[in-house]
Design a protein that fits this description.
Length: about 230
């Protein structure tokens, strides 16, 4: 497994690089946002560990730029403890967060969890192709298309759509979506689910004549083809 570590604190970066290498990972290191974004977009990595506060380009800007072209899982590191800061990162496409200071064992467990999730279809023999009418998803290549037109999805949008597609026809609540996609307990003051649904709908439905993603008032969301 190849990891990209983008961390501007040299001592911490070297500590993590060494520790992850000892765990069997191939680790590429960048000490600022500019170099990190270049490596992230030009190389092939199984996962990116991204510090939120970086010189040159900060972590959120790196993440936003990366999500324009890549769905690589991203684990963010942050010293900011405010819920709003983490929500902004999740909305921008981060797959998980680790708060500084952290134990290496926790970071390793989070990395392994994200990698298992990304590689689960390969190792478990699960369905790797999902379909609903003209909508198709390839879970291995992490690609989605509708009517032959590729959908440019962030990692979170891809995970959200795949969950809805796996359980097509079933109404999923905001609480369940938050738990399944973001691994977080639902907070009624957090609109991360609504924002993600709105962005997904703009890509999945708005360019086409018939919507697939529907809101069930007071209950949640359902993906289904209701016909012409």
């Amino acid at each position: 497994m190849k990891l990209l570590l983008i961390e501007d604190e040299p001592k911490l970066a070297e500590y993590l690089r060494k520790g992850l290498s000892e765990e069997g990972f191939s680790v590429e290191l960048a000490l600022n946002g500019i170099d990190g974004l270049h490596l992230a977009t030009q190389g092939q990595h199984d996962l990116i560990v991204l510090d939120g506060m970086l010189p040159g380009i900060d972590g959120l800007a790196v993440l936003a730029a990366l999500r324009q072209s890549r769905n690589t899982p991203v684990l963010m590191l942050t010293a900011r403890t405010q819920v709003e800061d983490r929500v902004r990162g999740l909305q921008a496409g981060a797959d998980d967060y680790v708060l500084k200071p952290f134990a290496f064992s926790e970071l390793l467990a989070r990395i392994q969890g994200l990698l298992r999730r990304a590689q689960g279809a390969r190792s478990s023999g699960e369905v790797t192709q999902l379909r609903l009418g003209e909508l198709e998803m390839d879970l291995i290549r992490r690609r989605a298309q509708r009517a032959g037109q590729r959908l440019d999805l962030t990692a979170k949008e891809f995970n959200l759509l795949s969950l809805l597609l796996r359980r097509q026809g079933e109404v999923l609540s905001r609480t369940e979506l938050a738990e399944q996609v973001w691994d977080m307990n639902f907070d009624s003051e957090t609109n991360v689910v609504e924002v993600a649904i709105r962005r997904l709908r703009s890509k999945l439905d708005q360019p086409f004549e018939r919507p697939l993603l529907h809101t069930v008032r007071g209950m949640g969301y359902v993906l289904e083809d209701r016909g012409a």
